[in-house]
Design brief:
By secondary structure, this protein is an alpha/beta fold. 41% of the residues lie in helices and 12% in strands. The protein contains 17 helices and eleven strands. An eleven-stranded mixed sheet has the order 1-3-2-4-6-5-10-11-9-7-8, with helices on both faces. Strand 7, helix 10 and strand 8 form a beta-alpha-beta unit.
Amino acid sequence: MSADVLRMSAASLAAALAGKQITAEEVTRVFLERIRDVDPQIHAFLRIDEEGALATAREVDRRRDGGENLPRLAGVPVAVKDVMTTVGMPTTVGSAILDGWEPPYDATIVAKLRDNLMPILGKTNMDEFAMGSSTEHSAYGPTRNPWDTDRIPGGSGGGSAAALAALEVPLALGTDTGGSIRQPAAVTGTVGVKPTYGSVSRYGLVALASSLDQAGPCARTVMDAAMLHEVIAGHDPRDSTSLPDPVPDFVGAARRADVGGVRIGIISELTGDGYQAGVMQRFTEAVETYRGLGADIVEVSCPNFSYALAAYYLILPSEASSNLAKFDAMRYGLRVGDDGIATVEQVMARTRDAGFGAEVKRRIMLGTYALSSGYYDEYYGQAQKVRTLVQQDFDAAFEQCDVLISPTCPTTAFRLGEKLEDPLAMYLNDIATIPVNLAGNAALSLPVGLAPEDGLPVGLQIIAPHRQDQRLYNAGAALEAALEDQWDRPFIEGLQ
């Protein structure tokens, strides 16, 4: 029974729980046991809340036995990226500077999980302060890809994606600043969604780049992502960037799964040179699958996307430099060098030197320089102008298309350590995902098979206009269903 539970989709688990075919406590114990068995090799989790998860599960069972009408995902376990504040569990953001820090409040999206009676199994590993594409920059050690433990699970949210791929949890939350939900989903054969900026609350997320950060669902199927997205979406008065829109019917869009007559645009700048042959092969096959489903395929050009990477790596470090200034050893977190003689400035400097990793220091220095007197207009100001051009490219493309598609990332998962000494090579891994964050649009990554040359997962990215996230679920579910028919099984059955 436990093996069946592990491979069930969240939607199937929810149905089994609602039908009393299994209890929430039984489901939660199955996943906790799986974590104990496999996470020593994967290191997807930084901490487990067994007591809290089981308490929630028992509450679900008690209330269901009492005849209450419970939320759709009540009793379905979930994991939370360690960038989200949680009462009762430390929030470290993968950094030594916050080692052991316990927040006094829940992030809004964590509170929504609790309101929906979803057992929170624990906090997942991540690149320090969400800076990285491989989850190798965590102060607590790297996470490994369950498809090949010598390879990276993507980043910064590799812990959430790896936990899904290792069958340690059916659902997870991540954050996406330049691809940190979608790129891990692509390289682990899972599904990840970056919602429209402002449609999911950022209250309680430890900020990296405030104009780019966006929380979203991580899952193993498109429908599961849609169900979790409906739980966490919605207006939050505590978030000044929160949109006032009602939550769309994402589940209904996923059920519709019909792309007949839908105009799907291929972004010419996000294919071709620099993309692994196997990635392009699977992408091309997916395009033909869409064509066979009745979609209208058109090619579009977004010429300013070629400048997006450079603009992003000026905007993000600049905002990170400002956001991370609060970690000063004076209020919370690590404090080093306070011997009674050192000055305040010396304590701050020693603490930040000891508490921040190399990648965080690199980006703080880049951002501080870009914002410094005499350089602000030349660097940060120019980058914001490029951002506007990227947004205009998207606007023009969506006049021709309903959704846009591309490979999620140019290669399959690379080996651990392969790009640590070359930051630019690491940054290039997000070349296809970054434009979406600059524009604030919505995007989804779903698996489209394995690359022939290495047998590793390939992801396809679907991009929707601002506030049209439901299009992702319709187009994504249609392709997922067609591919599963071809494979004669759901893709998740291929997970290790």
